[in-house]
Known about the structure:
Elements: H1 4-13, E1 16-21, H2 25-36, E2 41-47, H3 50-59, E3 64-67, H4 76-86, E4 92-96, H5 100-109, E5 114-117, H6 121-133, H7 141-152, H8 165-175, H9 180-187, H10 191-205, H11 210-219
Parallel strand pairs: 1-2, 1-3, 3-4, 4-5
Amino acid sequence: MNLVPLRLCERKNLMIRILIADDHAIVREGLKQIIGETSDMVIAGEASNGHEVLNKVFKNDYDVVVLDITMPGINGLDVLKQIKAQRPKLPILVLTMHPEDQYAVRVLRAGASGYLTKESASDELITAIRKVSAGRKYVSSSLAEKLAFGLEVDAEKPPHETLSDREYQVMCMIGSGKTVKEIADELFLSVKTISTYRTRILEKMNMKNNAELTHYAIKQGLVE
């Protein structure tokens, strides 16, 4: 019996098939370059917006999805939730420019297998992909410490933790100085809808205007 073809076949099946989802072509190229240096991974697909991610995930087989949060169309957080609803076992590694304090806990609660900032991608991406593809979670040591501390301390949640994911996203965008129209354009929603979100946010946060909201977001480290 010739065992060589079987071993080659087995080796091929061990390749981690990855879908890269980011709206910036230069970021996707950089990720492909990093992943291309490995022998056990292959880029099996790319997506530049939320709709494209969902279409490819539901039509193809991937071992890991590397997903950005901020994308045109359906934002990454909503994409994450829809994928987990249909493909709960598919590992999703969130790779984003947003700092851990801003989105990490929310995406992990939504079902992400890991959270990685683009700043640390060149050093940690390969390790993170291997870990989540094996069914484990990947977070930085600093985030792990925060999560552990949160479990140990029964502290009162900060006001922004009462917001829905969409409200939280709009709050961060207001806090970064964007106008209602700019937010509406970026999220592909109407100005009226964003204004409604803004009103809810101010009520839940017990604030009167955007200035108070911006001050809070900066003080809490939710915006840069």
